[in-house]
Amino acid sequence: MSESKYREWILDTIDSLRSRKARPDLERICRMVRRRHGSEPDRTCAELEKLIQEQTVLKVNYKGSISYRNAAKVQRRSRKKDDATLAMASRRSAVEEASHSDLSNGDSAFGPVDQDEEDLEADTSVAMDTDSNADEEGADESRDGQDGPSPGRTYEDASVHCASVRAVSAPCSPSGTRPGPGPGCSLGSGLDCATFQKAGERPSSLPPSSPRALAHNDWAYDSAVCPAERQHPGMQRDKAAVKPAIHSATSSPTALKNNMKKEDGGKVEESSISSDQLVPDYAARLDETKTVSDGQPQTLSLPSDNCTFNKKMDISSFAEAEDSLLNGGKGDEVSVKKENMSQNLLQWTVADVASYFSAAGFPEQAVAFRTQEIDGKSLLLMQRSDVLTGLSIRLGPALKIYERHVKVLQRTHFLECEDL
DNA sequence: TATTGCGCACCGT
DNA sequence: ACGGTGCGCAATA
Question: Which of A27, A113, A173, A254 is the most buried (most CB within 10 A)?
């Protein structure tokens, strides 16, 4: 219940800030939500993170600071462009939308890059961390101070911080942004936060060196995450450079395969990356994957709210399974994976399902799944008509979702059952 | 004082 | 040329 409420509130707030030409950053979002709905910043932050995980909201590092985007809107835009494309390759398009077009990061791309592994650990955290750090810190120090206009609101900020803290880690943000070098990270006050935070993140001094980058580039937080990569300012710009590394990082087997492919292929097309700013964790991953496969089904990484490690694994495996089904199947490995996947499918929660579809490039539709409380079991029971008409989603996406995802998941699951 | 509105510059396409 | 973004400042509540 509350979740959907928060979703509305937060998306509304983001839209509102955008229309007002104000940066939809953590501080402003929390403040506005609190003002309008009385929600505490901490809670707002927590909910915001959830939305980020499911890609309902995209966290972007734009012009050196973190911003949040209404994924639905962003995608639409991109879609317009892609429309044609979409028609051609629905699946791809989906993926693209999710990750690429929207997310794509010009520079940020790198960021996303390696996240995979990290993701595994804590996707959210990763992305968040970076960002959040920025936010927090920014809020505390730089932001308040810098943004002259906004009077610092300590308390709020503070609270915000906490919440965000989890994510917070670092500093990657544009150097300029945050004055305090080290401080930011440490903040991680909250336990929660701590959890996420990964040590790794530390802020390295990033690109402060390259103010420019900061200045206008947008990179993904992710990038922030990996210090090494970020380290090279130049690299960032090159979009391409980074990716490769990233791939490698990907831990899951599937991922690995993909990565391999990519690499073999050469640099994937960084082109995809080109876009700019957005780089949600997941998105990033998607990017990679998608890039690699180019039209094929890709691995979708699940967001992991709750997400479990297993799930992650599953997902990847799942992807493979999917691949195999679609492409003709490769073999044993797949079958094994499939098993895991299916089993897990039964364990998917509503959030997992929503995350899955968000990651697959259907954030808007993911909301419908959530609204209808579709968990893994329900997903297995869904019929074509349920997807096309029962979710009140547009026919185009519905068809893609059913044909490329629901049907595949179900088929995979049942095949497995038969085997067993 | 806190919010909101918006001109304008910047960037990528 | 066009659209998206957000800073910085003025207007308003």
Answer: A113
Q: What is the pLDDT of residues A362-384, one digit of tens each?
A: 878 888 888 888 888 888 888 88
Q: Is A58 left (phi over 0), alpha (psi -120 to 50) or beta?
A: beta
What 8-state DSSP symbol labels residue A405? Answer: I
Return the C-alpha torsion angle A119, A122, A123, A128, nearest 10.
-130
Measure the CA angle with vertex A27, ends A96 and A179; round to 5°: 95
* CA gap A29, A24 in Å, rounded: 6
pLDDT given for residue A121 in this prediction: 34
Residue A78 CA, nucleotide C3 C1', distance (Å):
12
CA of A280 to C1' of C9 (A): 33
Helix (H) or strand (E) holding A208: none
Query: Which amino acid residue lies closest to nucleotide C3, measuring CA to C1'?
Result: A77
Low-confidence ranges of chain A (pLDDT < 70): 1-2, 75-343, 417-420
**Torsion angles phi and psi, residue A5, rounded to 5:** -60, -50
B5: residue with closest CA to C1':
A20
Alpha-carbon torsion angle A275, A304, A184, A227, nearest 10: -60
Q: Which whole-number Å values give the CA distances from A175 to A34, A144, A178, A205, A227, in the listed order?
A: 29, 16, 6, 7, 13
pTM: 0.44
Closest nucleotide C1' to the C-alpha of A216 = B11
State the Cα–Cα distance between residues A201 and A130, nearest whole angstrom.
7
Rg (alpha carbons) of chain A, rounded to whole number: 20
- For B3, which residue's CA is nearest its C1'? A32
Structure confidence by residue, pLDDT tens digits, A36-49: 888 888 888 888 88
C1' (B9) to CA (A21) span, angstroms: 14
Query: With contact defined as beta carbons under 8 Å apart, do A368 and A388 qualify?
Result: no
Farthest CA pair distance, chain A:
65
Which positions of chain C lie under 7 Å from any protein Cβ? 3-10
Q: Which two tokens stand for residue A106?
A: 């010009």
Rounded, the Å distance between the CA of A60 and C1' of C5 is: 12
Looking at residue A211, its pLDDT comes to: 33
